[in-house]
Amino acid sequence: MRYSPTLVDHFLNPRNAGMMQLPDAMGEGEYAECGDLARVFLRVRDGRVVEARFQAYGCGPTIAAASLVSELAVLRPVEDLLHLKPEDVERGLDGLPDDRKHAAEVVTEAVRAAARDWLSRRGGDVQASA
Amino acid sequence: MTRRVYLDHNASTPVHPEVVAEMTPYFSEVFGNPSSVHGFGRDAREGVDVARERIARFLKVPVDQIVFTSGGTESDNFGVKGLALARGKGHVITSRIEHHAVLRTVQSLETQGFTATYLPVDEYGAVDPDDVEKAIRPDTVAISIMHANSEVGTLQPIAEIGRIAHAHGVPFHVDAVQTFGKVPIDVEAMHIDLLSFSGHKIYGPKGVAGLYIRKGIKMVSVQHGGEHERRRRAGTENVPGIVGLGKAVELRARDMHEEAARVSALRDRLWNGIAARVSDVRLNGHPTQRLPGTASLCYRHVESESIVLGLDLKGVAVSAGSACTSGNVEPSYVLVAMGLPLDWAMGAVRSSLGRSTTAEDIDYVIDAVAPLVDKLRQALPVGAA
Q1: Cα dist from B199 to B75, B195, B230, B251, whole Å
Q2: What residues in B contact A56, CB-CB < 8 Å?
């Protein structure tokens, strides 16, 4: 098997798959060359992620990477997610083959976009209440 | 232990035990070079001769019209280039859904001054014989159309195309790698001048194949060296492989018809079982004019490789219709040529059944596919694909 047991487990038993109703933030990542798409939803309390969900279209590693990120994000300050790297996702999956590195990239892009979305929404709230 | 189900017989097949038994002495006991005049060589030559006779009998052609090669790819290269290069220049007709062994051979001829027409196919993956006739020009030197496509299994109207080719005096090559030994082939009734066939698709060994060349067809060799195969294909014969191919063909002559009926019923069981439990799924290819054991299914909005991986983890071997390599995914060119929209074509999965496939295997696969596709669709972004 070219994939790690961790990756296989996330693929076979994806955590937090599906849409979130009324999320506090949402972000997308896309890998146009292979049509992969990942979408990450966040629920945030006091600047920390309390719940994350994902939707993904792509090969097995992309689905597994999105599932992993939905676990990694929880309890983290949202700002931390801006600094998440594809290498972090790859490490969490116990490795990716060279021709599947894009799985970590597309999912990292989605979670960073979700973090930016929350920060921009919060900025809007601050301005509105000022 | 996880059950293991092999549904990739169009990719390769296990060597039949009777084939292995026939081949075994030719590795170490009968090891001579068939070109040698001494007894060791004559013994090896006899093995090659028997194989050639078995294949010639199966195809109902004279023995001297069978040439052994190293694989289906070499047979296709030899067939197409051999015809074209013998005529020096001109126009070649083929289809858009040929195996790469033909497509890239024709493309290489284009770089050498030949011109080419790549015929379209209809929604079932079939070439229209009228299109062949319209494409023929005074300088057409060869027509190459496959008997059945490996991916969708649609049988081409070979007899009608052959009739047109002969009416215009154009030699006709047929890549029959996926049909030889699975469905009847009559080179006379189908007006076939050259026919590529291979060993490992029919429970023979890998690395051995053949090309039927009708007597009188002007050809040039593409591989040069010794005087082997009546100076048509240089290189010491792969004697164990050829012996195995001959035995495999003999077994196909015995088993082919009965197996086709059995495997065809199992293919229908697979399709009906999946269609009853999975929404948005379609069977590709012609509904009746098709290979007995091939079922190409498209699961809309699901990425084929994720299904292949999910089934592999359940011990089931199928093949993906779209291939993602180095982060660049391409839908099958065959399905694209058939006009399938991308959201269907990206979810193509081929199952190809064979002599060891059982009804229990099929039911196991149906039980594995249905929840897998459900799960993949649950994680799907709306409007993706």
Answers
A1: 12, 14, 21, 12
A2: 379-381
Contact A66, A110 (CB under 8 A): yes
Q: How many CA atoms lie within 13 A of B280 on its CB side?
A: 11
**pLDDT one-digit tens code per residue, B276-290:** 999 999 999 999 999
Chain B residues close to A55, C-beta within 8 Å:
379-382, 384
CA-based nearest residue to B239, from B47, B18, B28:
B47
Full strand arrangement of the beta sheet holding A36-45: A25-31, A36-45, A48-57
Q: Which of B324, B346, B382 to mutate to test the interface with A (most CBs of A within 10 A)?
A: B324
Which position among B11, B324, B370, B385 bears the catalytic label? B324
Span A58-112, pLDDT tens digits? 889 999 999 999 999 999 999 999 999 999 999 999 999 988 899 999 999 999 9
pTM for this predicted structure: 0.90
**CB contact at 8 A, B345 and B336:** yes
Q: What is the ipTM of this complex?
A: 0.74
Using the beta-carbon criterion (under 8 Å), do A57 and B380 form an inter-chain contact? yes
